[in-house]
Amino acid sequence: MSRIALIVTFCCLLTAPALWAQDQFLYEPFVPIRFKENIDVKGFNELETYKLSEEEFLLIGKKNKSYTDGLRLYYLKKENDRFKVKFSTHGQGESYYLNPYFFQTQEGHRIVIAEIGTEYSWGVHVFSIQDSGMIDVGFLNLAGTRPPENYPASILQQMDIYQKGTQILFEFRGTVLLQPGQIEQKQRNGRKFSYIFDGKTLDLVEK
Fold first, then answer.
1. Span 74-102, mean pLDDT?
2. Closest CA to 125 of 97, 148, 104
3. 3-state helix, strand, coil in the chain (%, to 5)
4. Strands 167-172, 193-197: parallel, antiparallel or unpaired by DSSP?
5. β-strand pairing of 175-178 with 202-206
């Protein structure tokens, strides 16, 4: 190999990580408008109303008649000058709360992290907002920890989320509890694993 070819190859190796990093975008928090008075949707009892855009709303509440009990999240989008429920979760059973947190990348990707639990966190549901509507990414059955004991607390402060191509990556820091509050609960180093959503399935990946 010539000297020039060696130099070119070396330069490519140095710049490759930077090029790869450019494809990975951090999800950062954003705060939508929260209405003081809920909008009225037939068949639902609303507790919280969030305006995501002029054509989108996200609501937390309960369905008046449903085969699953508990709080649920539902997404409304404007269609033919009317807002329609385009997506709804199942009721969350005995969970005391369903707290939504909103994130977006500089490229415009948006997700909603909805935490459930009672006296402690059960984990978080993840939903992606796309042009076609909202999709269910999956459930992260894990919690963070709160000192001095490993109490199952919100994972939000110990989690970073990235968009890489069509994938969504979930990275963690510190001590994390898998299956919090369950018999199978396990304590893990958060940096030893991650979750990856490939557009169809959400998988735990060991490092």
1. 92
2. 97
3. 15, 55, 35
4. antiparallel
5. unpaired
Token pair listed for 204:
């735990």
Query: Which pair of structure tokens corresponds to residue 105?
Result: 């990348």
- The count of other CB atoms within 10 Å of the CB of residue 31 is 8
pLDDT of residue 63: 82
Using an 8 Å Cβ cutoff, are 25 and 109 in contact? yes
Strand 110-117: give its sheet, edge to edge.
28-29, 97-104, 110-117, 121-130, 133-140
- 87 touches 75 (CB < 8 A): yes
Residue 102, token pair as written in the block: 């909103």
Percent of the chain with pLDDT over 90: 67
pLDDT bucket at 1, cuts 50 / 70 / 90? low
